[in-house]
Amino acid sequence: MAKIPINLQTGSIEEKDEGDIIVGIDLGTTNSLVAYIKDGEPTAVRDTSGSNALVPSVIHFGELGKISVGNDAREQLISDPEHTIYSVKRLMGKSYRDVENIEGFFGYKIIDEDTDSLVKIRVENRFYTPIELSAEILKQLKTRIESALDRTVTKAVITVPAYFNDAQRQATRDAGKLAGLDVLRIVNEPTAASLAYGLNNQSETAQKIAVYDLGGGTFDISILEIHDGIFEVLSTNGDTFLGGDDIDQFIIDYWLDINGKSKEDILNDKSKVQALRLMAERAKKALSSSDQFKDHVGFLNCQITRETLEQLIANFVQKTLDCCQRALQDAKLQASDIDHVVMVGGSTRIPYIKSAVGAFFGREVYDKLNPDEVVALGAAIQADILAGNQKDILLLDITPLSLGIETMGGLMDVIIPRNSKVPARAGRQYTTSIDGQANLKISVFQGERDLVEHNRKLGEFILRGIPPMPAGLPKIEIHFILDADGILLVKAKELRSEVEQSIEIRSQYGLSEEEMALMLLESIKHAESDMAVRALLEARNEANNILLSAAKFLQQHREILSEEEYATTEQLTAKLRTAVQGEDKDYINEVMEELNAYTSPLAHRAMDKTIAEAMRGKKID
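The chain above was modelled as a monomer; its predicted structure follows.
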């Protein structure tokens, strides 16, 4: 498939630039970094002093809207915790329900809207998504490499944990686009790490590689087979909520315990929480080379030995080894079948973890490369492959533009992202927005813009005969199946009734390569305004759903509400109805939060009453 070079400043299509730079980015929970190929070798870009390649994944919102990223932002964690955002990767593609159990870990405000929509972070009166926050980190990395190379960089490969789901991968793509980057490929971190170690060309026979990746917020274990330059993931296992952050928390809990304090004693003091978190991180790093750590935070004694740390994390490490065992079982392999064990992520520097993993697999682990940099270096190699500079590694054909459907408000919901390997198959579940809705029109689009009106319509069909049900109850699964010839089959099925319909759309969809290139250019040029429009429409859609639920609640539970409660709920719903008519998505989110905060206790009371009535006269044995 031909590549179309674009000049992002002029909007023109250029002759192929053989020196075109595609960078590799490791967007991490704790730190991020960018790398590229220099004189044939992958190189991590360092700061102006040349000493540090890591950019802390921390964003600070200062006065007059000033945003700082990296070390400058990290320095604000203690002095201004409510305006300093960290570990945002843990929130990518997540709803509040996914993260409510660890909300106390964060020093900033995460919004509970009691919905399955993507989580939002509140800073003063503005509401940010993890996508917008990650884009700020990516912008910083883009600025760093452009400064180092003295040229504009617009193309990138970004790595993600192998365990990331579709929503998390799509969120990462969106963050790249918002940062002004054409994300050519989302690459699994274990594949990148294997590339960095050169494991693709060390043997003429097939090799089986275990990549143990323990980062700041995520853990995954991947079993790969590499043969003739072809990488195949045999299995993956892990936890997107298991990482070095948790080890820090174990240390904090230990310190609180030996000082006779509880979490509740410090939770309201965000500065103290952050001071303890940073001290725990220092202790963890120090104990990799020392037997004891001593310091203090205010009146808290912060001392710990390496032996104590190993006792604290023993169950944690066992959890990761259990994941390793499951990954081996899924790949139908024994530990003895593994040829190499690659260690990735800063947390793998802990000697206890290194020895435990080595003992599990029965062999010495690969840890010669800097575990913080190995993924970014591999991403740079993958980028070099995409640039056509390495011919001995297979890249399967890919789909040139994203494929998706129209959802409420004219939004494009991508089901198969651009640059996905073909053949490809992907699906998502949807529901109805109106009570008793019997038919659902499914419109299929191709393109990179957030609104379907800016993309190319490929076709549409109507799923008829959905049994009448309340809005939100039907489960409609839409599948995109793209074959190797570029023929797209779209299927829609209502899972409760098994009503089904499909449409076939032929290859290439009549677009020339120039048209594809210009559509991509438009998506990058308008990324910021597109994201703003999408955020407004999503806020309106969410608010309309809440208004519908509030109206039903008032109608069904009038008898349990006092006059004041009923009147206040009506007043807040009227306020939200007015906000929805406006253009300020932050104000809509603010009023939604206000309504949810007031009605949540009322909803719990209604639920308790419903359960009590259902159980009346029944015995529980």
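The first strand starts at residue 22 and ends at 26.
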